[in-house]
Amino acid sequence: MTNSRKKIKLSTKMIVASVLGIVFGLIFGPAMGNIKFLGDIFLRLMQMSVVFLVMGAISEAIGSLDMKDIGKLGGKTIGLFVVSTLFASFVGVILSIIIRPGVGVTGVEAAAYEGTLPEGNPLDLLVNFFPKNIVESMSSGAILQVIVFSIFLGLALSMMKNEKHGEAILGLIKSFNVVIMQIIKIIMNYAPVGIFALVASITGTSGINMLAALGKFLIALTVGCLAVLALMILITSAYGKLNPYRLFKKLNNTIVVAVTTTSSAVSLPVQMEDAEQRIGVSRRVSRLVNPLGMNLNSHGLAITVAVACVTVAQFFNIEMTLSNYILFGVMSTLATFANLAVPGGALVTMAIGFQMAGLPLEGVAIMAGVDWFAGIIRTLLNVVDDVLISVIVAISEKELDMDVFNSDEPVMIAEVE
């Protein structure tokens, strides 16, 4: 029997919550800051499972592969991450040269910056990618270190896949991943309330003036992110002979969650669901590429750091040469590999980029005032491009289910044994 009452989609509820948040924020002003705790609870609930989600997804993805496939799939994925992120960084540099966002900026009060900068040279940063105590890494939310451990755990499971102990542990991890995803689905029912509180509080306390303060910076960032997003959709569609409009439409839930939460970590389970159940990416590809992409494939963050580097250099009247611009592009790419996939983590990444590029760290305080607004478009590109690269990898591996892609409803892909 057909249900006469049509169920409202979660994405629709989140859009309505966002619009209402803006309206209430503008009407009631700073008073809406009092409900921010509701949004903070939502983000905490989502973030509490991220470490387990990343560890389980990567361990399962690698552990389920044959050893001969790991080098091919992993190398292909990392290669796409590096090339595409480098391209995004230079798009940001070029647009900043054209738009000149740091020229003529006045009336911007330096916001307080309380982030912690890593000490040492780039080699020290590289060493810090590797955990010395995985429990400590998990408790501190050092996702990159968790990823490194998960890769080794997955490799060990792959080597022992045909042995009794390896098979048992891999099966346990698969079951654990199902439970974690169910926890996240439960939490997502609270999403409209949390999103309303977050949007209303930031709009009410910051107002429109904050958005206008660094308008040219936001314009350069937005143009860059949208240009790269459009190009990535076209490249993916052309490579897989897919309908670009249908592909974009399939990303609806991912886009809404990314824009409303400004968090790649919170968006991860939704983008994995879109990749697997709406687009047709195989589980083994999706659960390797998407969690890795959360930290190693941040196109939006790369553009943000690149635009910020040029903006700060222009703001402080620092003379720049072609080699300086090239340095900004490369350093912006490297800085994203230390990305913190939570709201506000971009300021730390920005500071790392400034430090490596030799720019005044005072620039971080200037950018902090508009970082929340920048995070909207930045996170959108970060998470959507992760999904698109998972699609590209799936196409290259002949693991894109066209029946799922052409379906108008989500389809649960059966696990391939």
TrEMBL record:
Record membrane topology: Multi-pass membrane protein
Keywords: Cell membrane, Membrane, Transmembrane, Transmembrane helix, Transport
Membrane spanning residue stretches: 12-33, 45-65, 77-99, 138-157, 193-211, 218-239, 300-318, 325-352
A molecular function GO annotation: symporter activity
Primary location recorded for the protein, binned into one broad class: membrane
GO annotation, cellular component aspect: plasma membrane
Protein's UniProt keywords contain Cell wall biogenesis/degradation: no
Record InterPro entries: Na-dicarboxylate_symporter, Na:dicarbo_symporter_sf
Cellular compartments annotated: Cell membrane
Protein name stated in the entry: Dicarboxylate/amino acid:cation symporter
Organism (species): Proteiniclasticum aestuarii
Source lineage: Bacteria, Bacillati, Bacillota, Clostridia, Eubacteriales
